[in-house]
Amino acid sequence: MSEAVRVMLVDDHPVYRDGLAALLGSLDGVEVVGTAADGLEAVRRAAELQPDVVVMDVQMPELDGIEATRRITADSPHVGVVVLTMAEEDQTLFAAMRAGARGYLLKGANQAEIVRAITAVAQGEAIFGPAVARRVAEFFAGAPVATEQSVFPQLTSREREVLALVAAGRSNAQIASELFLSPKTVRNNVSNIFAKLHVADRAEAIIRARDAGLGR
Fold first, then answer.
1. Are 57 and 79 in contact (CB under 8 A)?
2. Residue 170 and which of 33, 71, 160, 188 are 20 to 30 A apart at CA?
3. Is the separation of the CB atoms in 99 and 76 below 8 Å?
4. Residue 1: its pLDDT value, please?
5. Rounded CA separation 139/133 (Å)
6. What is the pLDDT of residue 158?
7. What's the whole-model pTM score?
8. What structural domains and CATH numbers belong to the chain?
């Protein structure tokens, strides 16, 4: 590319974040325009800086990288997100893809792989590390049906069960009766779901759940 790729780095570990910033900043064709230490800061700074690519960790305080990716790509669709994480689980990988990430690398990736991913995503491509690409290929080759366990990995199995019923239009009283739970337990589960999904109300939770295939 003729101009340097403008990159923002997001990671809650300062040693790793600063080390990666120094490494990438020393390379031709890459300009590190900013960093963030958590998901909320990432969303705010991405809106301000409008980088070409955000390199995003997953497990972070305040707001996780999956939800931060969702918000950034919704607000600024032209910003590419490369997830760089220790998380190898399929549910995290596919949650990141659903959130809008166009790249997914494990933190064991070498410098060349990271730079290649950043450059490709800046050009509008999608790229995954070798191990991740293999799992994506296996997933689609097997064409398994999406399960409730493969979406919203931040929720417990009970919370996913409750969310599916919320998405199906059930009231708290109906959910309590169907799952043989007390109304208070259902209320607590619903409150936890709202907090974990960062939604304001039941209507927003239903939209998020139905977009992910629950409650239909």
1. no
2. 71
3. no
4. 43
5. 10
6. 87
7. 0.63
8. 5-142 (3.40.50.2300), 148-211 (1.10.10.10)
